[in-house]
From TrEMBL:
This is Citrate lyase subunit beta/citryl-CoA lyase. Transmembrane segments: none annotated. InterPro entries: Aldolase/citrate-lyase_domain, Citrate_lyase_beta/mcl1/mcl2, Pyrv/PenolPyrv_kinase-like_dom, Pyrv_kinase-like_dom_sf. Mg(2+) binds at residues 137, 163. Its cofactor is Mg(2+). Substrate binds at residues 83, 137. GO terms for biological process: oxaloacetate metabolic process. Pfam families: HpcH_HpaI. One of its GO terms (molecular function) is lyase activity.
């Protein structure tokens, strides 16, 4: 697998090309209080970077972390996401007011989203053009997932799996967690959103990461929150089309063109749609056929 590069205006090095957020696989969460991590995160293999001023930051230091994030966004071409505090907290208003209109803000990840109104109020306070990635982290959020996905300003859904387990008492077992993940997949489809983003895996053990990312893909989620840069290569690889899938897709598309784009039977249209999707993602991710 190959990845394109682009110059990094902060470090002078060449950083991996960031994949469009609609199809981004890896969403790297960075503690906003750890300013020394900002530039390495921007230069990492993460498709998207999220500076976290919510759970990662102690309440007493949130104002300082917010200002550090604002300074980063104001001074440089960073195109970064920010995880803001949830609508029910006293920090939310200060977050949206400080971030609104900043040139480097790609979008916000709204913590603990539980209603469509949480999304629309955030979207409106940010000026009506900044995308809101709704982080669903509770039983109520899962129950309201369809209305959240349909909310004005909603961009994608993400699964806050740790808080969901704390809220419901659910174990981390794949079977137990299949229901909320599937709810987010179905809600995203109904709401016309890209595929949802799965919660993080704590371990950086490669076999564990591969197994968990494969579960993500099997359930229809198309991205994953990431806690450590060491996790990025594995997660990006597993969520990408395989080289053999790319080879099949391009062979099918070539053959389809060669026969004049004629549909032969009922299986052709589904296969055509799958081949086109694989080809599009492979080009975006730099995956070459085997």
């Amino acid at each position: 697998m190959t990845t394109g590069t682009q110059p990094d205006s902060t470090t002078g090095t060449r950083a991996p090309r960031k994949v469009a957020p609609e199809i981004a696989r890896s969403w790297l969460l960075v503690n906003a209080s750890r300013t020394e991590l900002y530039a390495p995160a921007a230069a990492s293999r993460a498709d998207q970077v999220v500076l976290d001023i919510e759970d990662a930051v102690d309440p007493s230091t949130k104002p300082e972390a917010r200002e550090e994030v604002a300074s980063w966004l104001e001074h440089g071409d960073h195109d970064t996401w920010v995880r803001i505090n949830d609508r029910s907290t006293s920090f939310w208003s200060d977050d949206v007011d400080r971030l609104a209109g900043l040139p480097g803000l790609a979008g916000v990840m709204l913590a603990k989203t539980e209603a469509a109104q949480d999304v629309t109020e955030t979207f409106d306070r940010l000026g009506g053009h900044t995308p809101v990635l709704a982080l669903v982290e509770s039983a109520l959020g899962i129950e309201e997932a369809v209305s959240i996905a349909r909310a004005r300003g909603a961009f994608r859904l993400a699964f806050g799996s740790g808080d969901y387990r704390r809220d419901t008492g659910t174990s981390a077992d794949d079977l137990a967690m299949a229901y909320p993940r599937s709810r987010l997949v179905v809600a995203s489809r109904i709401g016309g959103l890209p595929g949802p983003i799965d919660g993080p895996t704590v371990s950086s053990n490669h076999p564990v990461l591969r197994e968990q990312a494969a579960v993500t893909v099997s359930l229809g989620l198309t991205g994953k929150l990431v806690l450590d840069v060491d996790q990025l290569p594995v997660i990006n690889e597993v969520i990408s089309p395989t080289p053999s899938d790319v080879a099949w897709a391009r062979d099918f598309l070539d053959e389809f063109e060669a026969r004049g784009r004629v549909i032969r039977d009922g299986s052709d249209l589904p296969r055509l749609g799958r081949a086109q999707k694989i080809d599009t993602l492979a080009r975006a991710f730099g995956v070459n056929p085997s």
